[in-house]
Each structure stands twice: as C-alpha cells, then as structure tokens.
Amino acid sequence: MTKSPDDDGTTGPDLPPRSGGGSGRWTDLDRPPLNVAGLRRGLVRDGGLWRRIDVVQRTGSTNSDLVARADEGTADEGSVLVAEEQTSARGRLDRQWTAPARSGLFFSVLLRPAEVPVARWGWLPLLTGVAVATGLSRTAGVDTALKWPNDLLVTVGGEERKAAGILAERAGDDGVVIGVGINVSLRADELPVPTAGSLALAGAVTTDRDPLLRGVLRSLEDWYGRWREAGGDPAASGLQETYAAGCATLGRAVRAELPGDRVLVGEAVAVDGDGRLVLATEEGVQEPVGAGDIVHVRPVVP
Fold first, then answer.
1. CB-based contacts of 27: which residues, under 8 Å, 6+ apart?
2. What is the mean pLDDT of the chain?
3. Strand partners, 152
4. What is the DSSP string of 120-146?
5. Which of 9, 13, 131, 243 could form a disulfide with 220 if both were Cys (CB 3.0 to 4.6 A apart)?
6. Using a CB cutoff of 8 Å and minimum separation of 24, what contacts does 190-195 make?
7. Is the dihedral of CA 50, 47, 239, 134 positive or negative?
8. Rounded CA gap, 250 and 178, in Å?
9. Which residues contact 89 (CB under 8 A, 6 or more apart)?
10. Distance from C-alpha of 277 to C-alpha of 286, rounded to nearest angstrom
11. What pLDDT was estimated at residue 255?
12. Between the CA of residue 241 and those of 125, 149, 236, what are the distances in Å?
C-alpha cells in the first residue's frame, strides 16, 4: 500500500508488506512506521499544548528544520516535528550521530514560554529530561536515570548506558526548539558506541513507538505546564526536586571538561536553582558548572 498525503501536505504512514519476504521498504516488521493520524488524534486537542504534529520519512535534523520553520513564521508553539530517520542529527557540542530508520524516536518541539523570565529557560533541557524519563518509565516499564545535563540512562547487563539525548536551541527571540533522540529498538550489533543502549536492550515491555511517543509528549506537556504556571520557578514547580531525585550524577565523583580546556574534578553534590551542577572539589570549594562534558568517574563510597 502506498502513502496517501494528509490534508496539510505531509504523508501518512506507509504500511509494511503482508509477507515478511521481498525487498520492499518496510521489510523490517519489528520497526513499523509511525501512525501520524493516530498521533494527531491522541495528542492534538483544544486547550492543549500540542498544536501540530508532522512526521517526515527522512531529514537531516528535526531541530534545524523546526528552527527554520520558527524563523520563517510557519511554526507555532506546540509544533512537533518527527523524523523516521535523521541523516545529520546533532547532539551537544555539535556531535553527530545516526541510527537505522525507525529504530528510535527522533523529534523536536517548539516552545515559547513568554511568561517565564529568559534567565530560567536554562531549565528546559532538564525539564525535558524529567518528562522523557517519566514518560518512558510509565510506558516502556524501564528504570531510567538522568545524567546531567541532558542524557537519559538505562541499565543493560548491569551497566549504565545512554539511551536518549536532548538538545535545546534558541529559535528567534521568543522561542526554544528542543530535540530528543531516543534509542528504542536498537540491537546490540547496531550500537554506535559501547556506552550506548536502547529501551529494547534494557528490557522494555514494549518497543511500539506510537504509545512511547504519546507518553513522552503527554509527560512533557504536563511538566511544561507546571513549570510555566510557576513562572519558571524550579522549586515551586517541583522540577528541581524531581530532577535531583532521578539524577544519577549526584553523589558521584565526576570529571567536568569545561570550555577553554579546563578540567574540574569533584563530587557532584547538588543541582542549584539555575540548573547548574555543583561540584565539591578536593580544595573544599563548591563550584557550579553551567556547561561542559560530565564524565562519571566512579560511585562515591561513603
């Protein structure tokens, strides 16, 4: 069966062939395409955050595409752009990564928190991390943990593995585009690096991407609403406490690789009101870190 265009010009889902043989595009029956019509029915509603959901078969980067739409004035707050495959996906520090088509959830959302002071927008990646962790725990039934500032960890074979990453980018003066990449059905022989993992390898009860995406977006809508209603206050919204409770970085000895080739080693003791990671160094100084690569060195032994 072939694609049929939706009324907004995007395409609906292709259906896999009835038999498992042949060389058709959807021969991997473990990775069916997303049901865009079902996603819209389940998520787009009057008074809700999500206004438009588009699914494209292939693109370079959903973040780049959605930032461009925001700049052109063709995307409103609550726009969601999902790709079945990304060819130039970007992480923090402009790192690139790829994954097999339909093996994960690759999407970006546009938010415009006008009532929140810009100084508090730095909490949005951490808020998204909490929302993704909450949504996946409920829907996939896997234990998750957050690695500051923007990674989601799962346990595979007794080891922590990265299964998701988050990237936030400004979109004009009043918007933020947040991109999320989640490894869903990635197999062991498909892992890009040994430290990567996936929901499937972590024993998820489902790898059906439709309910997983709905669960994550509903969780993000809930947390974004709480945070926005509190004027972006991380304490009043419960975000700071919830993030700390689920953060695997806290209580660990870490190495922070900071801008300017500076390295700071210490115990991660807190996430402060600005969303920064606070390290207690051997010199007895508590130093906040707002940007940089964090490496978990080892658990702190009491």
1. 16, 17, 20, 21
2. 89
3. 146, 164
4. GGGGHHHHHHHHHHHHHHHHH----EE
5. 131
6. 190/99, 190/100, 190/103, 192/97, 192/98, 192/99, 195/161, 195/162
7. negative
8. 24
9. 60, 61, 62, 96, 97, 98, 99, 106, 179, 181
10. 10
11. 96
12. 15, 15, 10
Residue 246: both structure tokens together: 């689920």
Amino acid at 195: T
Sign of CA dihedral 224, 229, 231, 235: negative
Euclidean distance between CA atoms 149 and 129, whole angstroms: 8
Q: What is the pLDDT of residue 260?
A: 87
Distances (CA, A) of 94 to 97, 124, 264: 10, 19, 22
Q: Which SS3 state, helix, strand or coil, does residue 3 take?
A: coil
The first and second tokens of residue 198, run together, are 């996936």
Nearest to 293 by CA among 94, 129, 128, 158: 94
DSSP string, 29-75: TTSPPP-HHHHHHHH--TTSS--EEEEES-BS-HHHHHHHHHHHT--
- 246-275 per-position pLDDT tens digit: 999 999 999 999 988 899 999 999 999 999
DSSP of 225-244, one letter per residue? Answer: HHHHHTTT-TTTTTHHHHHH
Q: What is the C-alpha separation between 183 and 200, in angstroms, rounded?
A: 8
Give the separation between CA 240 and CA 120, rounded to whole angstroms.
Answer: 12
Mean local confidence (pLDDT), 193-200: 95
Yes or no: say if 187 and 199 are a contact pair by the CB < 8 Å rule. Answer: no
